[in-house]
Amino acid sequence: MFNKILIANRGEIAVRVIKTCRRLGIATVAVYSEADADSLAVEMADEAVFIGPPAPGESYLVLDKILEAIKQTGADAVHPGFGFLSENAAFPKALAEIGVAWIGPNVNAIDAMGDKIRSKQLAAKSGVSTIPGADGEINDAETALIAAQKIGYPVMLKASAGGGGKGMRIARSDAEVKDGFKAARNEAKSSFGDDRILIEKFIEEPRHIEIQVLGDKHGNVVHLNERECSVQRRNQKVLEEAPSPFLDARTRKAMGEQAVALSQAVDYDSAGTVEFIVDKDRNFYFLEMNTRLQVEHPVTELTTGLDLVEQMIRSAAGEKLEIAQKDVKIDGWAVEARLYAEDPYRGFLPSIGRLKRYAMPEEGQLGEGMLRIDSGVREGDEISLFYDPMIAKVIGYGKTREAAIDTLAASLDRLHVEGLQSNAPFLSAVLDETDFRAGRIHTGYIGEHFPEGFHGTAPREDQLVAMTCCAAYVHETLTRRAGRIEGRLRPEETVTTREWVVFLDKRRIPVEIEMSGEGEATVWAPSLVSDKLTVRTAWHPGQHLFEAEIDGRAVALEFSDRTEGYLLRHRGFKAVGIVCTPRSAELHVRLPEKEKPDTAKLVVSPMPGLVVAIEVAEGQEVKTGEPLIIVEAMKMENVLRAETDGTIKAIKVEPGASVAADELMIEFE
Q: Model-level pTM?
């Protein structure tokens, strides 16, 4: 076994590897950029080495700096995590030259499988089902156009190197091929330093199902069943689960056997993933193989009982697999949500900033299931524009799929983030949907169910009841607290029952509330329910989570006290609850609505980022939908388009400039 492992990565995966190393008694080394100097991974590691500026191309992607850190610390093994250099064959080759172990597959496997073009050719030779497409890489837009027309629309343009949805575009026309080829190539070069592109047929409404494989250096390979990763946005996974609600035993067995056969063809000797797309008839086609640990590996760990990081370490140390294929079972169900720093109400734009508040429920038992949280940040940390916007991976586990989903949804109810936006409301909304609950999902699920983007969900009656009780209880508690301040001109009121009016979701809801004891109240809200409501809660001022039992039903609401009213969220619904006296309520409805400023002629940056390109010039006439400017944030290019016809009056930024959120970039006449 190894004495000291250097983790050539950052964030959540670095923390994840450190946890396993601690359990195994192995010392760890973290490397860090300027942006990560105070990170959780640096705090947890036994040693830490500075490797450069925040930009990955000047730190985490610079092999020489990683090698120097290895020499400085005397690490005898390296775990690459995922992303960055994890699938760069030059890395293990360099480690071999200095006698340091690589915790990953052999170089030949990385070379063969890390290149989508070569891996597809090898898969076909190994008898694995493959997607129809153009042979070899595509070097220019014209060649891409010819290939697409030959294959037939729709087609997928994707980077030959890397993964994670970067450098991928779906094209349904000649025009989309031309635009998509350029964008995919730029993203591929920026993310992986490799701008090669391939084209293949895009399967309509496919499922994305992958097989986890595990091998050792003695020729043994097993598969650990499948993961369903079909709920995606912009080709990036949002929710993952194991097992798949779609596969039957026959298809699972066939996919697993093909994944093992492909792995054996390259003598695979670590954890890896063979990805497939599956059509509605359960026909499956090889997509790619990731020769590394996957972001979604926790759902496999929870349903098999195996620690994949530990298995990678043991394989790299030359140990034989302790399990055979017959030993691999499916125990329960796990569903993972990727909690990102992005604003679902603004087209999922990155939301960069500091986590002023960051509260998560504790891991362990939650309802009928178990909760696991993998995170690399803490309250006070900053989500940087240079890296992936992940805050945490939140995983619900249960004996059934329903129990796992309920556990995950309940954990997101108990999440509180301030300082930036998170996609938690959107994740919760998906988990509550009938089609998702029934397992009717595919890779176009989000676009199909949210064609106009995400704008929150309509409130259910039980949510209105819970929020009304919350707002009334909180306001009554604060009012009574203020009444006990010393030196008041008016004596403290001794009323036990008080009338309020709650304005919520454009509704006027009269209520009466009686505080019957510490943490207990009775609420009457006749416009919502005819019977009285009993509220029991341990909430006290200063808390940002309102957990209560309302008539015996447990509920958790995210809560924030605002200048006017209380911001409340439950699942995909959020609203401001304003609590008034009956007289104030009469006056409140007479208040004029504030007019919004006209910003139609201004183009501002929707998030902090870098200006990649400006597609227009001052004085140019543009039509609605034409591209104006490209802003890159978190390794993704965002094309801002004209929302109306007009003439460009002024351009306030230049290519290469850094812009802040809401910074003016272009002005129309």
A: 0.85
